[in-house]
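Final report, Chapter 2: Outcomes

The project's central promise was a pipeline that accepts a single protein chain and returns its three-dimensional structure in a standardized token representation, suitable for archiving and comparison. That pipeline is now operational. To close this chapter, we reproduce one record exactly as it appears in the project archive, with the input sequence first and the structure output second.
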Amino acid sequence: MNKTPQKTKSKSIRRKLFYFVLLIFALFSVLGWVLWKGSAVEISENVKISLTNEDNTESISEKLENQANLKYPYVFKLIAEKVRLDSRIKEGNFTIEPGFTLVQIIKTFLQAKIVTTNVVLRGSSSIETVCETLGSKLEPSKEDFFDFVNNDSLIVDFGLTANTIASMIIPNTYNMFWYTSPREVFAKLHTEYNKFWNEERMAQAKTKGLSSLEVSILASIVDKETNKVQEMPRVAGVYLNRLEKGWKLQADPTVKFALNNPSLKRILRIHTQLEHPYNTYYIQGLPPGPICVPSMQALQAVLNAEKHDYMFFCASPDYSGLHIFAKTDTEHINNANRYHKFLNQQGIK
């Protein structure tokens, strides 16, 4: 007996419904595997993804594709939109590990804590080194920081110029947010600078006849003259004596700075004759700004300079790194001759 058309049609519908449900189940199974089980990236080591407040779902997806070989960008963007990732982005560095699923990636962005980093700024560093340090630790590049410190119109709010900006940097360890801008960084440094220059230190500077800026300038020269902390106050005392008498400082490190040649081993007459605002053999008094970021030890050495009658010093004719001090020109010439003889013996030209 033949089946009725109605029964055949009903069976066909049930079969189609069964296959549809099976297809939906398979799709959800695949989607579930993609979201929770399958690796969404093709990387062999951890990858750092940097986000700023200007990023959105599209740009984050592009960064994941370019840096972590994201497999399912469409699914990522779909899920990111569902969880409103755009409005919940935190700035910072995010680590994507090999084998991360889409869910793990999304959670990494959503559950991340705002991370800070320690930035160590050291004394006796050039302003270029400071910019490199900041650029290696924070989101802005070293070029961003260098452009900032060399733009007088940007740093005028701190009462400084490109020549004097190094005086504002107090060597220390600074805790900063990774995304801190150059202006925010230097605003923080300015706050620390103001804390350092309290009433007591300002009074100490005044007794030396110096402003806080002049203390920093002189300290930077002391820093480059000697790395022996024990003789810094004596070196500072020599320079203060020369300033008081109206003598030129004749500090070799300022010549190296003017020549942009910090590795120069011997300062010759041709060097000291250079007409340059930082060459203290040429100018009277202090140069227009620090030749490096003054160390805390050098700053304290100037503020607590040794009182004596020395007017000269030169390097000791050995490898001790110390100096020989003299009160008269004759003494100094004799000391300098011994040092030059030592350099000749060492073949240093």
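Archive annotation: DSSP finds 15 helices and six strands in the chain.
This record, like all others produced under the grant, will remain available to the consortium after the project formally closes.
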